[in-house]
Amino acid sequence: GLDLESIRYMSPPDQSQIPLMQECLRLQLGQLRLGQNQLGIHNMYKSSPSSSLCSSGKQYNLVSKQFTSPTNLIPLIYEKQVMLECLYTKDSAAYGTVRVHNCNYEKFVYIRLTENEWQTYNDITASHSMNFPVDNTDSFTFQIVLSKSNDDTAEPNRILFAICLKSMSQEFWDNNQGWNYVLDVFER
């Protein structure tokens, strides 16, 4: 054969340079595009977004007034192993991304939520969405949909939730520093 004229070494772009809010918005828009095909099948919470939440003609929305995306995310992930990265609400659904330390290949991320101040709770499995090799983290997505109300049950005022990472026979929790994450329920 012929001699090589030049060798070009290519490396992936430095993902840490992408501003956090830009990345959150990109992930959120991707979640909305996925819609029911992927997220809806495994991560639904009692009803689907297409089924309008009506109880005697009333409709309810989820709103997150207290969550702000962390600014120093990567050091916090290394310290706590799991963190809520983004939270976005639209009508009766909430979409979120969770970032975890990629300390082990086998890991399981789920959202534990309650509508009645932890008297009972449900778990929602989060789906792996992206690997960030530059900072050795993984991203998972989830969807919470407000349950369809019965005429005999009152609508919850809020939904509390926390995030769990199971890896290496250990559990790591992100519960908003003991305050839980909150989704307020408002009548439309």
From TrEMBL:
<feature type="domain" description="CBM21">
    <location>
        <begin position="74"/>
        <end position="184"/>
    </location>
</feature>
<dbReference type="InterPro" id="IPR050782">
    <property type="entry name" value="PP1_regulatory_subunit_3"/>
</dbReference>
<dbReference type="GO" id="GO:2001069">
    <property type="term" value="F:glycogen binding"/>
</dbReference>
<dbReference type="InterPro" id="IPR005036">
    <property type="entry name" value="CBM21_dom"/>
</dbReference>
<dbReference type="InterPro" id="IPR038175">
    <property type="entry name" value="CBM21_dom_sf"/>
</dbReference>
<protein>
    <recommendedName>
        <fullName>CBM21 domain-containing protein</fullName>
    </recommendedName>
</protein>
<dbReference type="GO" id="GO:0000164">
    <property type="term" value="C:protein phosphatase type 1 complex"/>
</dbReference>
<dbReference type="Pfam" id="PF03370">
    <property type="entry name" value="CBM_21"/>
</dbReference>
<dbReference type="GO" id="GO:0008157">
    <property type="term" value="F:protein phosphatase 1 binding"/>
</dbReference>
<dbReference type="GO" id="GO:0005979">
    <property type="term" value="P:regulation of glycogen biosynthetic process"/>
</dbReference>
